[in-house]
UniProtKB/TrEMBL annotation:
<dbReference type="Pfam" id="PF01575">
    <property type="entry name" value="MaoC_dehydratas"/>
</dbReference>
<dbReference type="InterPro" id="IPR050965">
    <property type="entry name" value="UPF0336/Enoyl-CoA_hydratase"/>
</dbReference>
<feature type="domain" description="MaoC-like">
    <location>
        <begin position="53"/>
        <end position="105"/>
    </location>
</feature>
<protein>
    <submittedName>
        <fullName>Specific enoyl-CoA hydratase</fullName>
    </submittedName>
</protein>
<dbReference type="InterPro" id="IPR003965">
    <property type="entry name" value="Fatty_acid_synthase"/>
</dbReference>
<dbReference type="InterPro" id="IPR002539">
    <property type="entry name" value="MaoC-like_dom"/>
</dbReference>
<dbReference type="InterPro" id="IPR029069">
    <property type="entry name" value="HotDog_dom_sf"/>
</dbReference>
<dbReference type="GO" id="GO:0019171">
    <property type="term" value="F:(3R)-hydroxyacyl-[acyl-carrier-protein] dehydratase activity"/>
</dbReference>
<dbReference type="GO" id="GO:0005835">
    <property type="term" value="C:fatty acid synthase complex"/>
</dbReference>
<dbReference type="GO" id="GO:0006633">
    <property type="term" value="P:fatty acid biosynthetic process"/>
</dbReference>
<dbReference type="GO" id="GO:0004312">
    <property type="term" value="F:fatty acid synthase activity"/>
</dbReference>
């Protein structure tokens, strides 16, 4: 499935730079070929309240690992080679540690 992420700035009148981005609400739309669409809204820090929750799920596939290895330059065989990884303490391939960080910041 191919998905495309688009961002829509709702209030472009605020300042530039990091400080301006914090206070500016941003909507992110994910358009997927199977016509499934999810909307995620960025909430400004000042609007966050105790007890609020958010969730995100993604099935990590082989292509994700291969692309992350190519983009990050991390070609450690524990991520890419099942035979090598089977002889490590993990006993199987593992995803790159920063891959999860990349998902959170997406």
């Amino acid at each position: 499935m191919k998905c495309y992420k688009t961002r829509s700035i709702k209030d472009a009148t605020q300042g530039r730079g990091y400080a301006g981005r914090i206070n500016r609400p941003v909507s992110i739309l994910f358009h997927c070929q199977d016509s499934h669409m999810t909307q995620v809204t960025n909430t400004p820090y000042e609007a966050l309240e105790v007890g609020q929750t958010a969730s995100y799920s993604k099935k990590v596939e082989e292509r994700d690992i291969q692309l992350f290895a190519a983009m990050s330059g991390d070609h450690n065989p524990v991520h890419l080679d099942a035979e090598y990884a089977s002889k490590t303490m993990f006993k199987e391939r593992i995803a790159h540690g920063m891959f999860s960080g990349a998902l959170i910041s997406a």
